[in-house]
Amino acid sequence: MKILLTGKTGQVGFELERSLQGLGEIIALDRSQMDLANLTQVRDVIRAIKPQLIVNPAAYTAVDKAESEPELAMRINGEAPGVIAEEAKKLGAAMIHYSTDYVFDGSKKTPYVETDRTCPINVYGATKLAGEQAIQAAGIPYLILRTSWVYGMRGNNFLRTMLRLAQEREELRVVADQHGAPTWCRTIADTTAHIVAQGRGQQHWQEWGQQRAGIYHLTAQGQTTWYGFTQAILENAAIARKPVLIPITTQDYPLPAKRPPYSVMACEHLIKTFCELPQWDNALTLCQS
Asked: Per-residue pLDDT tens for 190-213?
């Protein structure tokens, strides 16, 4: 099976290139080779490679910057996935795509399930939802995997930011009234590989994909706040002098993009269909070990 992987230098893409090894011929591309902002290039690359499966972790992920660049964010997150899905349709290919907890407004008090009403409250969430809808409309075998609070030991993410600030400052003020599930990028990649491996073992890959097509929530299990996440990061960190941690509210730390106050997602659908998922704090410990 020929697998086209986008965004190979991103957090999730970097891990996917390794996790997917052995499951097919992996053709991993970075933005210089396939820029999702260039829709003509996207079409040309897919037509040249002719993959059986397209795995698309590439995205515009600068949540706050998206508020001032809505057209670019929509082209990358909303229009490009639709173009990829259209080209997959012509090839008879399947598609795995990654979305976000930010498609929800955070008004619930219990974990969101896949069928809950979407209502993004920022540009990033709106563009990711547009991408979901474009893929669904294409009529291909697809998996849309919604994840949240993605981190790892490379790239720009909350974990690396906190580790850096912990060595620079005597105190850290961290938001304690937003609830979610920190998810290690390797968890996302390994779970994706497990799913692909299951499908690869089937005689009729396309039929298998069509039967399981849909949206799945893929996050670490459990929930915490950014404050609780930071506490766990510092507990695992090998830092001689740890800063004082001070909980604050969202209002105390205004940002251009609104954040949902509660974006925990229930993952039972994925767990029952494919595989188990780790607890968020256990995954964090493994990441930092």
From this structure: 999 999 998 875 556 667 667 889
For residue 93, give the 3-state DSSP assignment: coil
pTM: 0.96
* Residue 280 half-sphere exposure toward CB, CA atoms < 13 A: 29
Extract the tokens encoding 258: 């609104």
Q: Give the span between the Cα atoms of 41 and 29, in whole angstroms.
A: 12
Catalytic one of 98, 124, 142, 216: 124
Active-site residue, 98 included:
no
Q: In three state form, how does the secondary structure of 4-16 look?
A: EECCCCCHHHHHH
- What residues contact 125, with CB distance under 8 A and at least 6 apart? 100, 102, 103, 104, 260
Tens of pLDDT, residue by residue over 224-244, are: 999 999 999 999 998 888 999
Answer for the pair 27, 3: CB distance below 8 angstroms, yes or no: yes
